[in-house]
Amino acid sequence: MSSVAAEKTSPIYPTYNRAPLAFEKGAGVWLTGTDGRQYLDCAGGVAVNSLGHAHPHLVEALKAQAEKLWHVSNLFEIPGQKRLADRLCEASFADRVFFTNSGAEALECAIKTARRYHYVNGAPERVNILTFSGAFHGRTLATIAAGGQEKYLEGFGPKAPGFVSLPFGDHEALKRAAAEPDVAAILVEPVQGEGGVRALPLPCLTGLRELCDERGILLIYDEVQTGIGRTGRFYAYQNAGGADPDILATAKGIGGGFPMGACLASEAAGSAMTPGTHGSTFGGNPLAMAVGNAVLDVVLDEGFLEGVRDKAILFKQSLESLKDRFPDVISDVRGTGLLMGLKAIPANTELVAALREAGLLSVPAGDNVVRLLPPLTITPDEIREAMQRLETGIAALSQHEKSA
Ligand SMILES: *Cc1c(COP(=O)(O)O)cnc(C)c1O
């Protein structure tokens, strides 16, 4: 036993390999380290800080709500929930919303909703959820089973039943699995974030919708990372035509840093969750709703998402040119909108460290990718500054720069 925890330097669970860096404060895309340095934040709290740090509209909304009412529980009406739910439905396929505190809880609600839908429709045997290799759906016992990754399942006892992981991109395996009579739903991220910024081709989303319709299977999107404008549309599935899901999990960017999430559902799926079938003490509390509504004030404002799409073009083109100049460090540029990935040739963690040294924060992902998730509010000038810092960090790992 002693071999595992030889020295204890902190009472915090040692579950994270933390960078040796803390921050004093933030403003927009900038973070001030306790080391006094300024960092350009392309980690974005892992796609959470959708509007950057200390956005004045969010600060104002949180302060105003804090002086009125923090929490009452879901035993009472919470007007902010109705308002936010109406707006989420208006901006998406959904008719029903359940508020949670996190992405994993939004997924738990999505899974329960899918099974419950079949249960109330006379098919209680339909419990299995089809998922894809490389997926990430959270760290609860059900969501590690859904993700299917051995490294997250190991040592935590029996894997929760009812999840079937299929090879990413294997259409035949999917068709065979979907023909089984016990399938409740297909669960998929339109772009795998943790899995290495791997996008499902848009026609595949439409194909999944058709397959689900043929088989009476529900389609669930995990848009915890891709939602709230990250890919240049409010939800990533909206980049494809005719690929509405039945259920969608959203979190991260919806609170701009305030912990919250939601499960969105069609009328048919959401209405299966009758009184008493689900609950959350904190979910949808007045503080969270005030901030969530404030985030939507900005993201759904006219022209905002169009601006994200424009900036994403500039960002991607600039990254492509870095890839061309440093082919011994970057082998691929991926992503949609402001969810971008650089496939690294050295270890991605090495590149993340070099970029941090150059004053830019990024996030490692699967498949040896470095993720860049800047606030959606980043300006073209800040993108140019990000490129300079990226260049410095990348050049530090390069043996030879190719002349442009
Ligand atoms: C982050 C993430 C989750 C888990 O969200 P938590 O808030 O950490 O529980 C689930 N799915 C995807 C796609 C994510 O990126």
From TrEMBL:
Binds 1 pyridoxal phosphate per subunit. Pyridoxal 5'-phosphate binds at G103, A104, F136, D222, E223, V224, Q225, T281. Its cofactor is pyridoxal 5'-phosphate. Its main location: cytoplasm. InterPro entries: AcOrn/SuccOrn_fam, Aminotrans_3, Aminotrans_3_PPA_site, Class-III_PLP-dep_AT, PyrdxlP-dep_Trfase, PyrdxlP-dep_Trfase_major, PyrdxlP-dep_Trfase_small. Pathway: Amino-acid biosynthesis; L-arginine biosynthesis; N(2)-acetyl-L-ornithine from L-glutamate: step 4/4. It is found in: Cytoplasm. The modification N6-(pyridoxal phosphate)lysine is found at K252. NCBIfam families: argD (TIGR00707), PRK01278.1 (NF002325). This is Acetylornithine aminotransferase. It comes from Fulvimarina uroteuthidis.
